[in-house]
Design goal:
alpha/beta, 679 residues, 41% helix, ATP binding, elongated, 4-stranded antiparallel beta sheet, 16% strand, FtsK/SpoIIIE/SftA, FtsK domain-containing protein, FtsK_dom, ATP-binding, Threonyl-tRNA Synthetase, Chain A, domain 2, 10-stranded mixed beta sheet
Length: 679
């Protein structure tokens, strides 16, 4: 026969709570415990014996081969062992650990008590009102007197407690007074009896000392849910505290605070009735609460729930470091189909930001040095690598910024000539009417690729100089308004760039027609609102948040969406020139290189140069050509005009004069042949 020793007070059999122990004989009734029983029970997290100690129960004899259940009573030793086991989690605590913990508690309690006494002394002296002492000394003194009285009452209460406990002559009147109060006196007497317990002062002192030790330990320990910038961790508690500090009320964190790349991400549900836009506007306050830069905090509305925001707190500014490189700048990239979506930016999570150019329009704005031209270059490269797309360009600064793209332009205005730009815009309006005739003939409502008409990109650089022109500014704005309002379905895509965003340059009737808007670094909220729309800065979207080192960073607003923080691509000049050469080769191969007519400014300029050289000469000096060519102010301006067309000045020998910088007739004719005509 065997006996099963139960390690639990109940009668449920368990693989870990039973140990089968053989008996010497059925008559002996003596249970012999196996030596490994305690270890088995300890590993199972159980303790031998019941919670309530019971007397030994005699074993009943059973037949051979049967099992009889009995319970070994819990002793005082096993009960203490169970308590220690629960406190320590089953781990052995070394004596030196206990000594170290006691020493730390003694030190922390002493320091905490001294620190608390210092805080109390400063409170009594009203140190927080020290700045007002010179202006309002009576007020400060009144606060001090009130606090001294409060401290005196507290000290007197403690002294009275000790006095009542120590002197019977005082104790008897107190008992008489409590007896007169009836039930209230009984309650007060009970409380007083506890207070008069001899160990009460010691317990109170220990409680104060322990509280001071815990407070000092918590003060020295960094918060587990602190800001990511401070502790490297962020939890739901830190998120809730930050929203409370930003005056956004008690929020609920939906799900865990997760790590995504270089940022902490949390889904936050705002209090009932509070829209997501209010939290988005509070990003600077949230950044202050988290201890980070405002640009490191990004809050976005959650689609489908107006009271939730997706919060992202970055470890560092998302736009630090070098700008991303444009995939189109890689050797051999292209061709591109502008009827499809193209990538123009990367967002703060380094994800592609793509747009659909058809039925679109673009506005790039920002103060000088914000990266406007470099960000817009991505769109220009995509247009160039589509051999079917037409590019109408209005160059400025004598065309130095866009000279590599001039050979592929279908139309090109005279650089820095507002009158020439007006003529080009008027031609664009006529082209728009011609396209609508084709659409009407097809029985359609808008242009389609199968109609055989390409997308036309109207690239207007430095809009400020054109719109502020005293003679042609009004005409430029009216023509752009007409094209922006009516040209979408005809496949005409205006692209406007300006480094002076203000109402005089971009009036609201023109800005509101633009589908895609990019606002780079701005010096005022009004400049940013001129690009993105009125009130955007008040909603928390302002170009002022970007610093000078954040080249190409900006806010990108697409139609029917909130602005997104994006960064444009950086493409070195030599890479951009290589893309322009590839664009020329693609158009030449596809047979879509622009032809030159009498109204093409490039052809007119080259034919004028050939006329000045004359049929009897094969070369001309730069000085003579600049003097006779009306479009050129000097030799440098002349070189700026001809270099984009492939005609450059070189040292040339002139009989009777010597070596001078000049132009050869063969170079001019070669450039003119590129446009499909000769002089």
């Amino acid at each position: 026969m065997t006996v099963t020793i139960e390690g639990r007070p109940d009668d449920e059999p368990s693989a870990f709570s039973r140990a089968v122990v053989p008996l010497r004989s059925p008559e002996s009734q003596t249970a012999v415990r196996r030596p490994d029983t305690d270890e088995m029970l300890r590993q199972a997290g159980l303790v031998v014996g019941a919670v309530v100690a019971r007397s030994t129960i005699p074993l009943s004899a059973g037949a051979a081969g049967t099992t009889t259940h009995t319970t070994i009573p819990a002793t005082g030793k096993t009960t203490r062992r169970r308590l220690v086991h629960r406190v320590t989690g089953g781990r052995r605590v070394a004596p030196q650990v206990v000594v170290r913990a006691a020493g730390q508690t003694l030190v922390l309690g002493t320091v905490g008590t001294v620190r608390g006494a210092g805080h109390l002394w400063r409170w009594v002296r009203a140190e927080e009102y020290a700045d007002h002492r010179a202006e309002k000394p009576e007020f400060v003194e009144k606060v001090r007197a009130r606090r001294r009285k409060s401290a005196a009452w507290a000290v007197g209460g403690v002294a009275g407690w000790v006095t009542v406990d120590s002197f019977p002559l005082v104790d008897k009147p107190v008992d008489w007074m409590l007896g007169r109060l009836g039930l209230v006196g009984d309650v007060l007497g009970t409380v007083g009896g506890i207070a008069q317990w001899p160990a009460a002062p010691y317990l109170l002192g220990a409680a104060v000392f322990g509280t001071a030790a815990v407070a000092e330990r918590n003060r020295r320990r960094p918060a587990d849910d602190g800001p990511a910038l401070v502790t490297g961790r962020m939890g739901s508690k830190a998120v809730r505290e930050a929203f409370a500090a930003a005056k956004l009320g008690a929020v609920r964190v939906v799900g865990p605070v997760a790590r995504d790349g270089g940022a902490w991400v949390a889904m936050v549900e705002l209090p009932g009735g509070m829209p997501a836009d209010k939290a988005i506007r509070k990003c600077p306050e949230l950044a202050s609460a988290f201890g980070t830069d405002p640009a490191q905090v990004d809050a976005a509305a959650v689609r489908g729930h107006g009271g939730r925001v997706l919060l992202r707190v970055y470890d560092e500014h998302p736009f630090t470091g070098t700008s991303p490189s444009n995939p189109l700048a890689r050797p051999g990239a292209g061709p591109v189909d502008m009827w499809e979506r193209v990538e123009l930016f990367r967002d703060i999570r380094d994800r592609p930001v793509t747009v659909s150019a058809f039925e679109g329009s673009f506005l790039y704005g920002g103060q000088p040095g914000a990266g406007k031209s470099m960000s817009a270059l991505a769109l220009l490269m995509a247009v160039g690598l589509d051999p079917r797309a037409e590019l109408w360009l209005t160059p400025v600064k004598r065309g130095v910024d866009t000279q590599a793209w001039h050979p592929i332009c279908t139309r090109l205005s005279v650089p820095d000539d507002a009158g020439s730009v007006v003529s080009l815009l008027e031609d664009a309006v006529e082209e728009m009417g011609r396209r609508y005739d084709v659409i009407l003939g097809k029985g359609a409502k808008k242009l389609a690729p199968e109609m055989g008409l390409p997308l036309l990109f109207l690239w207007v650089d430095e809009l400020a100089g054109l719109c502020l022109d005293p003679e042609h500014g009004k005409a430029v704005k009216e023509l752009l308004r007409k094209i922006g309002a009516e040209g979408r379905a005809a496949g005409i895509v205006p692209v406007l760039l300006t480094q002076k965003p203000e109402d005089k340059v971009i009036p609201s009737f023109l800005r509101d027609l633009v589908k895609y808007r990019w606002a780079g670094r701005c010096s005022t909220p009004e400049m940013s609102d001129t690009i993105l729309g009125r009130g955007m800065a008040g909603r928390g979207f302002s170009g002022m948040e970007f610093a000078e080192e954040h080249q190409g960073a900006g806010l990108f607003l697409a139609e029917s969406s909130t602005p997104r923080r994006v960064r444009g691509f950086y493409t070195p000049d030599e890479r951009a020139d290589d893309v322009a050469r590839r664009a020329y080769a693609l158009r030449k191969e596809a047979g879509t290189l622009p032809g030159a007519g009498e109204d093409d400014p490039r052809a007119v300029l080259l034919q004028t140069v050939l006329g000045i050289i004359g049929a009897d000469r094969d070369r001309i000096t730069s000085a003579e050509l600049a003097d006779k060519l009306d479009q050129a102010d000097d030799v440098d301006h002349l070189a700026t005009l001809l270099r984009p067309l492939g005609v450059t000045p070189n040292p040339t020998h002139f009989p009777g004069v010597g070596t001078r910088r000049g132009y050869r007739r063969d170079d001019v004719e070669t450039a003119l042949n590129r446009f499909g005509t000769t002089g």
